[in-house]
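Appendix C: a fully annotated inverse folding record. The material below is reproduced so that readers can follow the format used throughout the book. The structure is listed first as tokens, followed by the designed sequence.
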């Protein structure tokens, strides 16, 4: 019986106990790097998925992520990071995780076998027509994630499916399938290794491309962040100085008046606008700073 790649054993795993620590670690790193190449092979599919996500984000529709186990944790990380990094509105973000928040402390695998639970969680998430959902599953057949994607399609929600095995239910069900054909894991079935690394890279590629196209990333800066802690305030000041050639004092003052919103502060400094004028200018340009820079 031929095993799925995510369950197969890497031939190089034989004899690991006889290798030195450095040799084992070098092999682990080598196989991780090899797994990342799967994202390069999937660039055409990633491009299409990013375009779909961009359309949903530009239309101010909701964005959902779904998964179980380590694949779900990878999805969760991307979902939680987007508001802080690129200013995606948190009230339009949804995470559907098998077993819910209580399962994050002590992962119980039984939750991923419940397709109906996936369907139920989708109904409770409030996603609907023209929203978008990203489902992540190493095997491509996780029942919970499949339940979410099937319910999403029935509701008119656009779907992106990410999996590491070809011709699997999640890829077949998704509107925009992304196959990350990673090699067998150095520890058979431990998809938190290479498979998860490739998933994270693919998600990073999708969200970063979308942020760039929406004008949330300009000249290498995350200009849509809201500076709400010391680290982000310092970063925001550096962004303002770079984009407007202002002084540190001017940057700090503009940020305070703009309530930490970098785009608003940029327009206040570069265009001589007050807060209201900067907000209106952004609305007229769909939140994009580029016409002013």
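Designed amino acids, in order:
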């Amino acid at each position: 019986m031929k095993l799925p790649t995510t369950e197969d054993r890497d031939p190089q795993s034989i004899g690991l106990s006889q290798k030195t620590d450095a040799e084992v670690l070098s092999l682990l790193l080598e196989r991780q790097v090899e797994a990342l190449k799967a994202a390069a092979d999937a660039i055409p599919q990633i491009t299409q998925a990013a375009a779909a996500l961009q359309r949903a984000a530009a239309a101010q529709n909701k964005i959902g992520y779904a998964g179980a186990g380590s694949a779900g944790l990878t999805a969760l990380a991307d979902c939680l990071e987007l508001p802080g990094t690129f200013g995606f509105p948190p009230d339009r973000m949804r995470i559907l995780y098998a077993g819910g928040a209580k399962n994050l402390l002590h992962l119980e695998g039984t939750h991923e076998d419940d397709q109906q639970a996936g369907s139920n969680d989708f109904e409770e998430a409030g996603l609907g027509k023209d929203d978008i959902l990203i489902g992540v599953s190493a095997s491509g057949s996780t029942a919970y994630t499949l339940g979410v994607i099937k319910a999403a399609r029935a509701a008119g929600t656009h779907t992106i499916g990410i999996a590491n095995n070809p011709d699997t239910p999640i890829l077949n069900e998704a509107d925009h399938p992304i196959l990350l054909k990673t090699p067998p894991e150095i520890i058979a079935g431990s998809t938190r290794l290479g498979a998860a690394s490739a998933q994270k890279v693919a998600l990073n590629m999708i969200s970063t491309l979308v942020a760039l196209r929406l004008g949330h990333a300009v000249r290498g800066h995350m200009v849509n962040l809201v500076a709400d802690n010391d680290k982000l305030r310092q970063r925001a000041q550096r962004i303002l100085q770079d984009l407007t050639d202002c002084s540190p004092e001017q940057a700090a003052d503009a940020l305070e008046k703009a309530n930490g919103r970098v785009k608003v502060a940029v327009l206040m400094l570069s265009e001589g606008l007050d807060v209201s004028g900067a907000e209106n200018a952004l609305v007229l340009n769909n939140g994009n700073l580029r016409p002013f820079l």
